[in-house]
């Protein structure tokens, strides 16, 4: 039993008693209420105690990171968050302080779209914020007394908001400790409640130890036994190939070799992003290192100490990545950072009892032992003795954070996760000495920009398996999102899915050949192409818009897609779907998407059994020429299918080129008349024209509601 | 019996036997087929015979009117019309000659939107057109033999198209005779079939004779006993006050006084339009007059003769109007042209048997006697001896042509009447010597631009009753038409009328006061204002758009409106409605429309029992300010009603002014949240928000389908 091993070496010694995160699916309501109350008070207290590490009020207004707010913001922010979320959830009717609440709500970190121009801020006094915090404390305590509480607490329940506020403050407890660590030492003081670990020793040799392959399952069900953030729910399953992992986190000692080998000055080890950051910062060593008189020193949260060589190095992802690239070159091995799944494979293989069920933390975590890192070999896990599988410092992974299948945004905090699903926020795993509450859970998923600092380091792995670096970010292009919803999303006003309805309407009227080939012209984001692929051996799918085609290809590649659609004004909703849930996945690879101009097709697009031109002709600049040329690309006996609402507009088609909707020799010529006149020589009209309605959602309340006409033409033999 | 009187003076003497227009609700089908066949042949023959008055082929290519096509166009046009209409009605599958048919289809007269640039035309040879006409003759004869014929012939029947082609040619028979009359004499020859009347005598004294007031009923029912144009159908009833009418049409003699008094050179007698025309043409006398060596001569269709002083003067409306103004000034009497109804009142009082039931034409009409005018006292009608109540020359009226209630466009000829419903085409009544077929009917309604020449003169009347010169033209402004359809037109997708639904949804929730006052803000074309007027004693209705307000005022003034809505491309549909058919007419005068800015209302818009802001707030530039200021204009205990789909767009409202659909302090704020926050201090929310859907038609196939939210707020007492 590995857990026993560390008990021999270190005693839980922190003066702050950090309570475990509450179990919310068991117990008795009034006891749970008391437990949550204590949990809140403890969190609130601990957060305020952290700020006692600032030497004076002046320190609250300094900015250790130029792109982030001063600490006064964060001191108020966790209280403001309670008020704002209680308001959003309509649990309270009045706010407490307009000024503080509008100033301290957003701008948590660099990733925010907030304007950090100092001129915009006239920060309140610390005492003022303290008075505000006191008011909020009373408010929350009162809410905890009064809000209805039933177990389990679901994520729509009022108490979820209380737990959210607590967990939110625990995140800031850790991130604020990092900001304090980044402050000039003269503004910080040592504090008995926040002692660093006193010892160091020679760094242990690091070895690559084998980790067996296997399946990693992620994704919580609701309601679970503890509070969770939205990005933890859903379903995800990853098959991990066997790999080797470094026994210990990379120590300061180990990292020194990279520095001494000129690693910070050698662009070859760095990603483009990494090199940009390094150059901008002129970084030559880890941010919490400093060199004086040829000696290396180390910055803890509140002190400078001689370099503790056996402690893990604190770096951002970019530095960790550069180190791995350097090490891979030096060793000739495929060294890299683990993915999230690889980390979890190691975790599942080595960590026994899982928080919050353990009695004593099996690692340097949960503020249980000290307010700093400890030697990397102090806490080990599993038979092979892996150090710090959890705790000490967070471990950077190769994985950019993303939602699982079935991801849903929590309605009261819709920008917690979604803005980070951009391929630019990498997951950190395992927690640090400062991680408490939800942060300690196996299922927790925190991600930061790759150049950000946390109490974070890394473990490297050796694997022949390459990481797919392509990230499937969520679609924010309004038109693309509109079309994704149109092709794959909900039905509105009871109108069935249009591309599917079109293909369904065609099939009964055509003779399907074996190995038949179809061409989907104006395929947009591809739904009709996939529907055609149910019946046709090969489908070429073309659109004039590369934006559409890029998205369709992306969809085949990833099998799923996420997109934001407008609800009202700038309020949006994240939606997603997968080809498999629409039963389109099996034959998606039979569809070949490409950019193309329907009026000027390449020669290779020929010999089709069916050409589907869905809502295309009234957007072509030469529709008549299109009709003439397309018939040459259809096999004798093949079909041309046209749908259109015949919305002729001069912005797309010069009036003289409109097929119909015109006066010819003074007489009205409808587009249907014109289609019949144009196609009659070469085609027979297979059946009467059919009306197929469609709805395109613009906002939750506004839609385009259109009725296309579908005609089917069979080319003469 | 007046009819007998003229028989003593003139014998029907024309060599051309023009058949009466066929009765289509009686008879035996095979006989009717033969009758129509003869009628067609006679019309076709007569038309060709008219062109024999041209001296040579060269004459076909000259343009007697610079803004109109040469006669070769008209020679072909009546044949082309048969082919095109048979094609449109899908009675024939193939056309005969693409080139002729596309060149000769449109550009009939100046009012057409065709391009008269000569460079666009490479006219065919006369022989070519003749050959074409021969082919068409065969085609039509064949169609007459083969098309199904049942009696009565309805306007959707195939034979209606045949009759339409015949009547169309009869119109051009007359208008082409005018063009020939306008040609230089050297290109025209006398023709035995087209003799002018040989005699003249001293012009009779003209007197004003009384005509009793009464009701004039117009509007044919379908199917009738003869072919009719679309503008003849529907319902119209006019109460005509007693007036006096000149016994005779104004003779050349009588008109000479105006010329000799300097009438053509004195702007005071002319309308603005008339003076513009006179100046442009430098007209100093009627167009068919010419002066040589101090002598006045007169142009008939094919000859110049010494001035026949007892014949009616041929003038356009502008000249007739100037004469009346001059005569009114000279006599001190309210002299003017009659309206269409006044003309018909005279007609009904004096004309006995009505065409086509008469045996012999009671006037110089139907090509029965001669191919020119005759003295104005040759044919008299009624006990008082009114001359030329019908026949001789057409009589200009003050009335611009318009459709009757229930007007419907004939689907095969949708631009026969609608383009003339523009307030710029005045009706001419009574027919001329060249009028045949439908033109001779009491119910016929032909109208021309006011500066056009026909075989037309005038009779003046004396009446204290002023003519309402305001013409209710049809709306072509696309946005206005869209809103007229939205407010008053058809329902789409089963969604009930939105403004009505809103007011209906409010009424159950409010306490209605006696003599209550309502304000409709953003009233657009006014439907909600009229609906409010059902319940409120006074309604002020404001919109920022003067286009909308102008239209709403117009609607109250006229009680009805016509508008064009798009079907597909440039194909449109004329729609109309009246306030009375929507049962909105009774209280329409309780609505006061005015242009106004909801964000900056004049002081007088105050003390309302209810303010309705329908789909307004998301189009305001200062919605928050609006909410603040509007509450001051509502009485204590009064109501504010807001509907909106909350479609916030930066083009209307700067983002910082959006009420909702925004992130405030990082939290989503919906517009409903914001409304509640803004209005709560002053108002109570009367009931839960209601969803009210609406559909705005863009084309026959494309619509906006939106769901507004309706909230009702009661101001604190």
From TrEMBL, chains A, B:
<dbReference type="Pfam" id="PF12867">
    <property type="entry name" value="DinB_2"/>
</dbReference>
<keyword id="KW-0408">Iron</keyword>
<dbReference type="Pfam" id="PF08241">
    <property type="entry name" value="Methyltransf_11"/>
</dbReference>
<dbReference type="InterPro" id="IPR024775">
    <property type="entry name" value="DinB-like"/>
</dbReference>
<keyword id="KW-0560">Oxidoreductase</keyword>
<dbReference type="InterPro" id="IPR027625">
    <property type="entry name" value="OvoA_Cterm"/>
</dbReference>
<feature type="domain" description="DinB-like">
    <location>
        <begin position="40"/>
        <end position="175"/>
    </location>
</feature>
<dbReference type="InterPro" id="IPR042095">
    <property type="entry name" value="SUMF_sf"/>
</dbReference>
<dbReference type="InterPro" id="IPR013216">
    <property type="entry name" value="Methyltransf_11"/>
</dbReference>
<dbReference type="InterPro" id="IPR051043">
    <property type="entry name" value="Sulfatase_Mod_Factor_Kinase"/>
</dbReference>
<dbReference type="Pfam" id="PF03781">
    <property type="entry name" value="FGE-sulfatase"/>
</dbReference>
<dbReference type="InterPro" id="IPR005532">
    <property type="entry name" value="SUMF_dom"/>
</dbReference>
<dbReference type="InterPro" id="IPR016187">
    <property type="entry name" value="CTDL_fold"/>
</dbReference>
<comment type="pathway">
    <text>Amino-acid biosynthesis; ergothioneine biosynthesis.</text>
</comment>
<dbReference type="InterPro" id="IPR029063">
    <property type="entry name" value="SAM-dependent_MTases_sf"/>
</dbReference>
<dbReference type="InterPro" id="IPR027577">
    <property type="entry name" value="OvoA_Nterm"/>
</dbReference>
<feature type="domain" description="Methyltransferase type 11">
    <location>
        <begin position="519"/>
        <end position="642"/>
    </location>
</feature>
<feature type="domain" description="Sulfatase-modifying factor enzyme-like">
    <location>
        <begin position="207"/>
        <end position="461"/>
    </location>
</feature>
<protein>
    <submittedName>
        <fullName>5-histidylcysteine sulfoxide synthase</fullName>
    </submittedName>
</protein>
<dbReference type="InterPro" id="IPR034660">
    <property type="entry name" value="DinB/YfiT-like"/>
</dbReference>
């Amino acid at each position: 039993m590995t857990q026993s091993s560390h008990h021999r070496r270190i005693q839980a010694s922190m003066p702050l008693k950090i309570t475990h995160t509450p179990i919310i699916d068991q117990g008795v309501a009034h006891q749970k209420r008391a437990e949550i109350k204590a949990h809140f008070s403890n969190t609130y207290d601990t957060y305020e105690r952290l700020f006692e590490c600032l030497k004076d009020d002046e320190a609250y207004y300094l900015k250790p990171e130029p792109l982030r707010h001063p600490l006064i913001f964060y001191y108020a922010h966790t209280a403001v968050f309670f008020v704002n979320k209680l308001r959003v959830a309509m649990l309270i009717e009045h706010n407490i302080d307009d000024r503080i609440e509008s100033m301290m709500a957003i701008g948590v970190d660099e990733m925010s779209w907030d304007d950090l121009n100092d001129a915009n801020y006239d920060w309140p006094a610390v005492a003022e914020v303290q008075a505000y915090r006191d008011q909020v404390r009373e408010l929350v305590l009162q809410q905890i007394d009064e809000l209805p509480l039933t177990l389990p607490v679901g994520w729509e329940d009022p108490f979820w908001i209380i737990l959210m506020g607590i967990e939110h403050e625990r995140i800031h407890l850790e991130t604020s400790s990092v900001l304090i660590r980044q402050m000039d030492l003269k503004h910080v003081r040592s504090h008995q409640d926040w002692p660093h670990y006193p010892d160091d020793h020679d760094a242990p040799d690091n070895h690559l130890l084998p980790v067996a392959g296997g399946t990693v399952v992620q994704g919580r069900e609701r309601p679970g036994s503890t509070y969770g953030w939205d990005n933890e729910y859903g379903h995800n399953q990853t098959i991990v190939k066997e790999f080797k992992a470094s026994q210990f986190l990379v120590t300061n000692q180990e990292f020194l070799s990279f520095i001494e080998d000129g690693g910070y000055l050698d662009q070859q080890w760095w990603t483009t992003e990494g090199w940009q950051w390094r150059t901008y910062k002129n970084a030559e060593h880890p941010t919490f290192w400093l060199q004086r008189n040829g000696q290396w020193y180390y910055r803890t949260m509140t002190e400078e100490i001689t370099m503790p060589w056996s402690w893990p190095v604190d770096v951002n992802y970019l530095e960790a990545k550069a180190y791995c690239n350097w090490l891979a070159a030096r060793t000739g091995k495929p060294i890299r950072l683990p993915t999230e799944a690889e980390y979890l494979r190691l975790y599942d293989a080595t960590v026994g009892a899982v928080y919050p069920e353990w009695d004593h933390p099996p690692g340097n975590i949960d503020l249980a032992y000290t307010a700093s890192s400890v030697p990397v070999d102090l806490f080990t896990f599993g038979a092979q003795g892996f150090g710090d599988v959890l705790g000490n410092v967070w471990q950077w992974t190769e994985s950019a954070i993303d939602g699982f299948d079935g991801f849903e945004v929590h309605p009261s905090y819709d920008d917690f996760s979604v803005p980070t699903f951009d391929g630019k926020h990498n997951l950190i795993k395992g927690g640090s000495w400062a991680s408490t509450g939800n942060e300690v859970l196996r299922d927790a998923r925190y991600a930061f920009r790759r150049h950000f600092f946390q109490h974070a380091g890394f473990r490297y792995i050796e694997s022949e398996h390459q990481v797919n670096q392509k990230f499937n970010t969520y679609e924010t292009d309004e038109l693309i999102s509109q079309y994704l919803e149109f092709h794959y999303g909900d039905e509105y006003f009871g109108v069935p899915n249009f591309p599917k309805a079109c293909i369904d309407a065609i099939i009964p009227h055509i003779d399907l050949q074996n190995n038949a080939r179809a061409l989907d012209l104006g395929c947009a984001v591809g739904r009709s192409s996939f529907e055609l692929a149910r019946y046709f051996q090969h489908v070429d799918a073309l659109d004039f818009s590369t934006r559409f085609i890029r998205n369709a290809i992306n969809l085949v590649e990833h099998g799923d897609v996420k997109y934001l659609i407008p609800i009202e004004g700038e309020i949006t909703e994240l939606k997603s779907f997968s080809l498999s849930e629409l039963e389109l996945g099996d034959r998606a690879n039979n569809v070949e998407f490409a950019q193309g101009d329907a009026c000027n097709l390449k020669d290779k697009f020929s010999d089709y059994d069916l050409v589907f031109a869905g809502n295309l002709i009234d957007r072509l600049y030469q529709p008549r020429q299109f009709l003439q040329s397309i018939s040459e690309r259809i096999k004798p006996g093949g079909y041309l299918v046209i749908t259109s609402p015949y919305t002729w507009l001069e912005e797309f088609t010069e009036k003289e080129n409109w097929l119909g909707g015109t006066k010819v020799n003074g007489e009205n010529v409808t587009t249907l008349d014109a289609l019949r006149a144009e196609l009659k020589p070469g085609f027979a009209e297979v059946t009467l024209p059919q009306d197929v309605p469609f709805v395109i959602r613009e906002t939750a309340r506004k839609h385009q509601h259109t009725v296309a006409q579908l005609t089917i033409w069979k080319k003469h033999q």
